[in-house]
Amino acid sequence: MLVLAIDTSTPAVTAGLATLVGADVSVLAERVTINPRAHGELITPHILEAAKEGGVTLREVDAIVCGVGPGPFTGLRAGMATAAALAHGLGIKAYPVCSLDGLAAATDPTEPFLVVTDARRREVYWAAYDAAGTRIDGPHVQAPEPLGLPVAAGDGARLYAEKLAVRVLEPYYPTVAGLVTAARGSFGADPAPLTPLYLRRPDAVEPTARKRVTV
C-alpha cells in the first residue's frame, strides 16, 4: 500500500510517501521545511518532489494521511485543503490523524511520555501517552507548566523544557513514518471527516455589530 502523508500543524511543512506492508512502514521519500509562514507555498512542491524522489506518481497512491492538529488555523488549513483536493482528484480516501499521535508514533519510549508542540501565545498543545504510545490524555492547550510526566517529545517540549520540567525526546515535528504508523489501524474502513483540531478560536474573528452612539 502506497501512502502519501501530509502535515502542516507545526512550523514544519511535511510531506512524503511511504509503503505499508502489514504493520511495516517504509519511507520512500520525505520533504520537511521549517517555515511557519510557508505552508501554503511549500506543501504542493514538497509532495511533487517526494513523489519524484520516490520514483512513483501520485496516480499510484492508495491513500492519504493528513495531520489535523492541533495547530494554528492558517497552517492546518493549507495541509488539509491540499489533502482533500488530492483525495478528490485521485479518487482515493484521506485519513485524518491527530498530529500529536503522529509525533508519538515516531518516538521510542520506555515509559509514559508527553508530546508537546508550540501553540504560540506562550501556550502549548499537549497529550499524554503510555509506554506503548497509546494516547491516554488530551489533546489540550494551556500555558506550559509541569504536567506530571518527566519526558516529552515535540518542539514545545524543547522550547519550554524548564517550565514543563521534562527531559526532551525527538522528534520535534511530525514525520511521515509516524503519521502513517498512527493512521494504519484506520485503513480499510471509511475515514472520519478531515476536521481540524484548533482547540481554540482563531485570532481573526468577525466584528460584532457597532454600538449605536447616542448624544
TrEMBL record:
UniProt keyword annotations, A-Z: Transferase
Domain of life of the source: Bacteria
Short name of any one Pfam family annotated for the protein: TsaD
Keyword flag Transferase: yes
One cellular-component annotation, GO: cytosol
A GO MF label: transferase activity
Protein name: tRNA (Adenosine(37)-N6)-threonylcarbamoyltransferase complex dimerization subunit type 1 TsaB
Native source species: Amycolatopsis pithecellobii
Name of encoding gene: tsaB
